[in-house]
Amino acid sequence: MGTQTDKLVIVITKGIDSELSSVALTVANGGLTSGLKVSLFLTSTGIDLVRKGGQTMTQVAPLEPLAEMIADFQNRGGVIWACPPCVKSRGYAADDLLDGVTITGAAAMHEAIKAGAATLSF
């Protein structure tokens, strides 16, 4: 039997090239709607989801456009963390990312998990 939590961390390793990014954001927004405190940890090509303009490059019908899902997520208090080496390896800096995205290592995610957050990975 698991313990109850109101926190969820979703690790997203897929970017604009995969429908899994849209699924992950749908799940993340659903978590917020359910009253969870949701954080996203973006790694690998998931970083491109928060590169300015990157999220406008794809849409998986019938889901909402990525840009709308990300804006909705942030406007409702969702937290987005971006893996520092993943950002750097793509030649991006903080100014290249959407406002409100924090470049931080896995320690932020680990703290949330230690505080009882459930986890999902896409």
Automatic annotation (TrEMBL):
| PANTHER family listed in its UniProt record | CONSERVED WITHIN P. AEROPHILUM, PEROXIREDOXIN FAMILY PROTEIN
| Entry-linked InterPro entries | DsrEFH-like, Sulphur_relay_DsrE/F-like
Gene3D superfamilies in the record, alphabetically?
Answer: DsrEFH-like
| Family matches, as SUPFAM superfamilies | DsrEFH-like
Q: Which Pfam families match?
A: DsrE (PF02635)
Q: What is this protein called?
A: Predicted peroxiredoxin
* Organism the protein comes from: Vannielia litorea
